[in-house]
Structure formats: C-alpha cells, structure tokens
C-alpha cells in the first residue's frame, strides 16, 4: 500500500490542471502588464513617432533616407562608423580569444583572478575609462612617451580614429572575452588530444576541432561588440574630433542643435536596420547559443575544463598578461590622478593633494550632480526592480510560444543602439515637457534598466524547483505564505542582483542624460563630461574615482551576499 499511495503523488512535475493552467497564464499576463505598458509608452510609441518623423520631416517622402547616401558627408560618416566598429570587433577578438582560451587551461585560483580582471571594466565607469584614455593618449602622455624610443614620439594620437579605436577596444573587450569563455568552457579539452592521437599536428587539431566548436562564442562576441560600437557617442566625442566624427556625433548635432528629427531619425533607423541584420546573421551562423554566449552566462562546466591546470605556453602567458594590463590600465590611472596636485591632466602626478576631493564635495555644481545621480539611481532601481520582477514571474507563467517573443520585447532596449534610444527619448520628452527634468531621466533610465532586472530574476527562477510552492501548499500554506516563506527567499538573490544592475546602469549612463540635461537636471556623468569638453576641471579625476567606488561596491556586495546565500543553500 505504501507504494500505491506514493504513486499518485510522484508526478509532481509542475503540470497544472486546465483550469489552474488558464488562471496561471492570465496571472502571467497580469504580472507582465506594468512592464509591457511602461516599455510601450517610454520606448515603442516614441520610436514609432521618430520613424514617422524620418518620413515626414521636413517634408513627406524618402528624402532623409536618400540624403544618407547622396550628400557625400553622411555616407563618409556611415562608412567610417561601420569601419571602426568592424576593426574594433576584429582586433578585440584577436586579443580576447587567447585570453579566454588561457582561462580554460589554468587552475581555479588563476582562473578566478583572470575572471576578476575581465570584470574590472564592468565595475569601472565608462566615462572614467574614457577619461583615463584621454590622459594616456594626450600629447606628451604615457603612450607617446613609450613610443618615443621607436621614433614615433611625434605621432599624434588624441583626436584621431586610432585613439577612438583603442579606447573602444578596451571598453568592449569584456564583451568578447566572456562569450568566448562561455563557449570554450563547454568544450571537452580531450578532443584536441584525440585529434593528435590520430596523427594530426596540435595546430591542425586545434584548427579543425577546437576552433569550430568555439565559433559560437566568437560570433556572439564579435556581433555584440560590432552592434555596441555602432552607437558609441562618448568615446568619439571625447577622444575623436569633428573631422573624424562617427554617426552618433552627427545624430547628436542634428537632433539637439538643428532639431532635425527627420534626418536624425533616418540615421537612427539605418543603425537599427544594421543592428538587426548583424544579430540575425550571427544567430543564423552560431545557432541558438548566441543569445546565451552574448549574455556572458555562466557555462556548464560538466566534463569541459578540469580544475587541474594544463600547460600554458610562454607566448600565451605573455599575451594574457598584456591583455590583463590593458583591461586594468584605466583604473590604475584614474585613482592616482585624483590625488594629483597639477591643474592639468598629467600622469603620473608631479605632486599629491586632496584638493580635488574637497572641491568635489564642496562645489555646488558637483554636489548637486552627485545628489541628482543618487536620486535618479535609487528611483530607477526601485521602479525597474518592481516592474522587472513582476515581468519575470509573468514570463514563467506564459506558454512557451509566447514566452520567447515577450521576452525579446522586454529585452529590446538592450538591442537598440544607445544613441537611438537617447534620440527617441529626447524627441518624445521634448513634446511632453519632460526634457530637462529628473523625472524624465528616471523614466528613461527605467526603460534601459528594466531588461537587466528581467534577466537576473528570470535566471534565478529557472534555477528554482517549481514544485516547491506546491509542496508548501500541500502542507497547508496559503499562496501568500508559500510565496513569502519559499519562493521569495529563493528568488531574492536574483532580485537583489537585478536591483544592483539597475542602479549601476543608471549611475553610469551618460548619453541619455546628456540629451535630457538642463541646469537643474545634471547628473554626475554629465558634469564629468562637461568638465572635459566645456572646461578643463581636474575635479573629474576625483569624480571618476568616486564613480569607480559607487559602481564597484554595490556589485561586490551583491556578489558577497549571493555567495553567502549560496553556501547556506548547500548546507
């Protein structure tokens, strides 16, 4: 009898009866509704309005699109942008591939160190990294002094496409390393040895076996970097020049200075079409693994790379060391610069002082920017976390055929080039009177941060046994009690991670804030940007160090909390 009574209870596979399944699906749409409405209002409707403007402003027709390829200047800018994005993708891949491969060969301690080095750029403000490269590449800077013994000391770097390419490559390098490592860590290292045992030289076995298996990660990383590079604005604005402008700079001028939303919209649509084509091709070439690899997800290490270190050739050690230095260089520059006594951007410092920190926390402009940034970041994190968490729970209750499209829609702000998102928001908020307000910046940042919360919470839900709430209910717990005592504690690390990512996304965002800025609505990244482009204010070095701390500390705390919860869960 014991066996017969256990049999009906065994199929706890999470399947529901027709009535309960129908209620769960309706509950899913109900949970999704706030996030979907927010994205439609803040993103889809303004994007559609901009598309209409591109065909109707200043007159109805295809004139704006025709001018992209006929006015001479625009086609050169488009070509330059595509070329720089392609070069950054290729050079970045050549730097990232050996580094990611080395990560699969070394022991767990060294691997953790290499992963941490890759993550350092994520913990460092993008604006701070660009400021560091501005200091390194300026006339008389460190890079120029290094090149002097080779007879290249007179080569001008700052204000050229080369400087833009160098900075963009360093900024985007982690987006190449992580997908590649994600793909490589799933490859059984014994396959190359098997190829060698069949008579193939190691180089041929690697080329014929390992390289094709790692191709999905390479394609995912390169396509992601290419797409991100298309919409870069801050790097070419700080390190480039008007003579070598990229498309994001031209969009900014047409929208903010000329109010030519038709022409700017046509350029934005061109970027969007190129983005969708690249993503579609990469998905077709690399298969379904592209989405996972591009997200830099944690790979399944079963049967892949051993915890025992494999031999690492000397050239690979040298290459890995050089890439590691490139990854951490901006952080090593920004912090010492904040204590420099010089009133110019000079590295290494000639003297030491706390003057710039004093100015940072006493100047009305800088203190107002800090308070605005914290206010915007906190509100963005709260709103995005609530909407994203509800959306993640809603996705889990949908039919599989709806889950994919809805999830893609929720993640769409991540796919659209950043400059286009800024243009869309600026155009819409200008009509609604939200331009130049902190509320407008909060709403725009919420749309940008929402996908990160959805990804974090969804990943946590997928790793949770869906039968546990049912078990709690079978023991007499009410739905609210089961959620509070079972589901919420299990999902909480994902919610906290999403909240941290939302806060950091808002904290470091500069392009949208630049479009929406006004005297009373200037965030810290905007103030930092203006301190370089409008006036030479060394206080930016202290602000950059502060941004490093504000971005890295929440992420580190989230990792510590997640690690502790993980240890408790394994006990």
From TrEMBL:
UniProt xrefs under CDD domains: TM_PBP2
ABC transmembrane type-1 domain boundaries: 78-282, 370-559
Pfam family, one: BPD_transp_1
Any one GO BP annotation for this protein: transmembrane transport
Any GO CC annotation of this UniProt entry: plasma membrane
Annotated membrane topology: Multi-pass membrane protein
Main localization of the protein described in the UniProt heading: membrane
Membrane-spanning ranges: 29-52, 77-100, 112-137, 157-181, 209-234, 261-281, 321-339, 376-396, 408-432, 438-459, 490-518, 538-561
Similarity comment text for this entry: Belongs to the binding-protein-dependent transport system permease family. CysTW subfamily.
Protein's recorded name: Binding-protein-dependent transport systems inner membrane component
